[in-house]
Input
Amino acid sequence: MEAHEEAVPEAPQEAMEVNPEYLKQLKDLDIPEEEAKKALILTGNISAEEAAMFYFESLENHNLYADEDEMYYKMVFVVNMELPMGVGKVAAQVGHAAIGFLYQLLLKDSKSKEMADKWDVFGAKKVVLQGANAAHLMQLQALAISLDLPTYLVQDAGRTQIAAGSHTILGIIGEEENVNKVTGKLKLLN
Output
């Protein structure tokens, strides 16, 4: 499981090799070696103290949102593969869906905001999958809605590659197990 990572300035390339003394100090604190290396890199390899604070804050943030069954959340984007969209167009449409979700969820009730917070804390998992066509996207949307999962269906404005009103991307967000009931058999976009 990934711990929540706060925005930290990118470490310079030469700092990617972790300081062995700092690593030893972190391991002495019972921080797993891989997590210690990650914390050192993400904090710019400044000091063992800085990396330890980052690691323990990440754990604390994770524990604030952990339920007894630890529900993981993810956001899935299903691309309408029938449309002749280039890579840049698909990326832009996925961006529309992600922004639409966040805007929609953050303005709704506290339950929706809590879902967005949990999604973020548990790594903000995003997956892009292949859908057959617009009818397929709408079937998936109906199933997601029946499971009480928030959805966002992007319709293109028609200014570039495809006709106005075309259903390009279906976004679904929610508890991973429920999202998988809707999209678990779809192939990853490649």
Summary: Residues 87-107 form the longest helix (21 residues). The chain is about 50% helix and 15% strand.
